[in-house]
Design a protein that fits this description.
The chain has 498 residues and is α/β, with parallel strands linked by helices. Helix 9 (293-307) packs across helix 10 (318-335). It is built from 17 helices and 19 strands. The protein has two domains: 5-333, UDP-N-acetylmuramoyl-L-alanine:D-glutamate ligase; 337-486, HUPs (Rossmann fold). The protein has helices spanning 5-13, 61-70, 85-96, 138-148, 170-182, 209-216, 223-236, 275-288, 293-307, 318-335, 340-352, 369-379, 392-399, 408-416, 433-439, 458-463, 479-486; strands spanning 20-25, 27-40, 47-60, 74-82, 100-107, 113-120, 123-130, 157-161, 187-190, 204-205, 241-245, 250-255, 258-263, 337-338, 357-362, 384-390, 423-427, 443-447, 467-471.
Length: 498
């Protein structure tokens, strides 16, 4: 669940403010041979793929850039390629996505990295790599630095996408990271190799389980051991945040608060290639737009869940990310209905973040425009609104044995679907005083048909520095009025009409 869902939605809808991000790393061209498998070769026990079509796209650090530009950001890309036809194809693909490539330098001692994947019946059958992995020559490193150094000022984020092909040397990383940090630019790293020390001082790194196991010596299958090693690594390298990507299992965040898991939403996984690129790109987008760490991590997790459902390396799009947020929102509405312990924990978390928590209560039987307007007005008195909802038993005690018309579980679920409502808590007592004392809200809201002296809990809320607010009501709107109208046959002369 997002802590600030409105801010997240606005960031995604606005293309993260079209901020500029600089991506540096290993560039490659991804080629795909697509076909069908209908038989096994008589020459060897291997499937025969009947070729149907060929496609190609920018990969590696270039795929990080593609994810960013499809999310709405402006992207400048820096790295090396060979001086060959594959470079031409790669630059054409990047230009089609609107990615700036003035810092993509042709090297004379290497070819452009190309990864060719054979796909049969939507499953990857084989991958062929054409690549040079030796470190940059001092001359090429100097040329690359000269090209990218002027791009640092004004960047909203710097992403180092390391595929261990020789571009992100220790010397270049330790030149880039301090330079960016001196300019106040967050540095995000997708790491590779055994030695992560070259990333010291980065704001965030995103290893997967195999990469972290290689760097720390912990067994890949030992997740608790990996998380403990990650915490130690983060401290040793002065990293702001370590994000362990767990493929279809989600993410684990390690910072000064300790490790915490963000599970993935259940979905069918077809291909995890490119998911790491999507995670770091979404992190860069969120941090560049000023979103908090936890909300950005949650957003990156949603984005990764989208791309693992595709075959091949595809970037996340803004429309897909908005759809994923909307799909999760339906699940999150039900999560707003809390017991007292859960509500107290959530209120404390909101207050610790500096947010004013508003509390109101009622039966909310047959929800109508008067209720909705009242709740919207109450929410404006702070940043969070908690609704105490009478149980069916307490409604009967207040309204009579024929009420409520709607059962408590249904009333709670409908309230939770309102954007103005952040939490719903049932209470069975005749008054909400015990619940108010348990939650200790900052603001107690009640309808203006009350006076402050008659509002239950008003003295108690004021005793801890809280505020009591009386909310104007919408005239001629009530559940009782609706019931009375429904009880009059339309044929009756007393029927007031629609």
């Amino acid at each position: 669940m997002f802590t600030h869902p409105e801010a997240v939605l606005e960031a995604v809808r606005s293309g993260f403010g079209a901020r500029r991000v600089l991506v540096v790393g290993d560039l490659m061209l991804d080629r795909y041979l697509w076909g069908e498998v209908q038989r096994i070769s008589p020459e060897a026990p291997v499937p025969v793929v009947r070729l149907g079509r060929r496609t190609q796209s920018a990969g590696g650090a270039a795929n990080v850039a593609r994810n960013l530009t499809h999310l709405g950001l402006r992207v400048q890309l820096a790295g090396l390629t060979g001086d060959d036809l594959d470079r031409t194809a790669l630059l054409a693909a990047l230009a089609a996505d609107g990615i700036q490539t003035q810092a993509v330098i042709p090297a004379t001692d290497r070819t452009t990295t190309v990864k060719t994947r054979v796909i049969g019946n939507h499953q990857q059958m084989l991958r062929i790599d054409e690549e040079s992995t030796q470190p940059l020559t001092p001359t090429d490193e100097s040329r690359l630095w000269t090209a990218l150094e002027p791009l640092l000022p004004g960047a909203a984020a710097l992403v180092l996408s390391d595929y261990d092909k020789g571009v992100l040397t220790a010397a270049l990383c330790q030149r880039l990271i301090p330079a960016a940090r001196a300019l106040g630019i967050p540095v995000l790293v997708d790491p590779k190799g055994r030695d992560f020390s070259k990333y010291a001082g980065a704001s965030l790194i995103t290893p997967n389980r195999a990469e972290l196991a290689l760097a720390t010596g912990q067994p890949r299958a030992d997740l608790p051991g990996l998380l403990a090693a990650a915490a130690e690594l983060r401290r040793d390298l002065d990293l702001g945040l370590l994000v362990l990507t767990l493929s279809e299992l989600g993410l684990a965040l390690v910072d000064d608060k300790g490790p915490r898991r963000i599970p993935a939403l259940a979905r069918e996984v077809f291909d995890v290639s490119g998911a790491g690129d999507t995670v770091i790109a979404t992190f860069a987008a969120g941090l560049a737009a000023g979103l908090g760490r936890d909300d950005t991590a949650h957003l990156a997790n949603l984005a990764a869940g989208v791309v693992v459902g595709k075959v091949g390396t595809f970037p996340i799009t803004r429309e897909e990310l908005l759809a994923a947020i909307s799909g999760e929102a339906a699940l999150e509405q039900a999560a707003k209905v809390l017991d007292r312990a859960g509500a107290r924990a959530r209120v404390q978390a909101w207050q610790a973040a500096g947010e004013r928590v508003v509390f109101t209560n009622g039966c909310f039987d047959l929800l109508h425009v008067g209720h909705v307007t009242y709740l919207e007005r109450a929410r404006r008195q702070g940043q969070r609104l908690v609704v105490g909802l009478n149980t069916d038993r307490s409604v009967r005690a207040l309204k009579g044995h024929q009420r409520p018309l709607i059962a408590e579980a249904d009333r709670a679920r409908v309230l939770a679907a309102l954007a103005a409502v952040d939490a719903v808590v049932l209470f069975d007592e005749d008054t909400p005083l015990d619940l108010i004392l348990h939650l200790r809200p900052d603001v107690l809201a009640k309808g203006a048909d009350y006076t402050e002296e008659t509002v239950v809990g008003a003295p108690e809320v004021k005793s801890w520095g809280g505020q009591v607010v009386l909310i104007p009501l919408v005239a001629d709107r009530s559940t009782t009025g609706i019931i009375q109208r429904l009880a009059i046959p339309e044929a009756s002369p007393l029927y007031p009409g629609p």
